[in-house]
Specification:
mainly alpha, about 180 residues
């Protein structure tokens, strides 16, 4: 067998070129970083989470849940924090629970986004009067913002495969002009 000093090249083993990871000592393989994937690889939990989050009014639902929790938590706080309400604290808890349910429902069923957005906005405005200024005004403002975001959200339609891609900016429409 000719040696590399004689100018001979080594034959690839198992389809891998000479000097590849298969030829290296195991200690050398551990010292090398893993090879970078060729091209964009979108797999795993993070890409599934991103796909799920973008397919529904996620941020509107999250703001609505936070507003509902804030409106609901004020009457359940210790006496040093809350205003003494008595039986008047029950609507606060109910309004907060309904807002939490509406925020969760748009995550589960995004096609109810417009109804949930309008009802959330109305409940947040009603909480201003019925529950310690709507959770000291924070719950009402966040609830109105969350309801507006739910109402305004539109699903993104996937591009149709039979339509050609639009030309890049600055390219002329007529190929004869180029």
């Amino acid at each position: 067998m000719p040696s590399p000093a004689d100018g001979a090249t080594r034959e690839p083993l198992n389809g891998h070129p000479a000097g590849s990871v298969e030829d290296a000592h195991p200690a050398e393989v551990l010292d090398q970083p893993p090879p970078a994937p060729s091209g964009p690889v979108r797999s795993g939990l993070r890409s599934r989470w991103r796909r799920w989050r973008r397919s529904r009014p996620f941020w509107g639902g999250l703001l609505t849940i936070l507003a509902g929790a804030e409106i609901c938590a004020i009457p359940l706080a210790p006496l040093e924090v809350m205003l003494h309400q008595g039986i008047a604290g029950v609507p606060s808890v109910l309004l907060g629970v309904v807002m939490i349910m509406l925020g969760t429902s748009v995550w589960v069923s995004p096609h109810y986004r417009s109804l949930a957005g309008v009802v959330t906005t109305l409940i947040a405005a009603a909480a201003l009067v019925m529950s310690n200024l709507g959770g000291f005004l924070i719950g009402t403002l966040v609830g109105i913002l969350g309801g507006a975001m739910m109402f305004a959200w539109q699903p993104v339609a996937p591009p149709r495969r039979d339509e050609p891609a639009p030309p890049p900016p600055g390219a002329s429409e007529n190929p004869a002009e180029a």
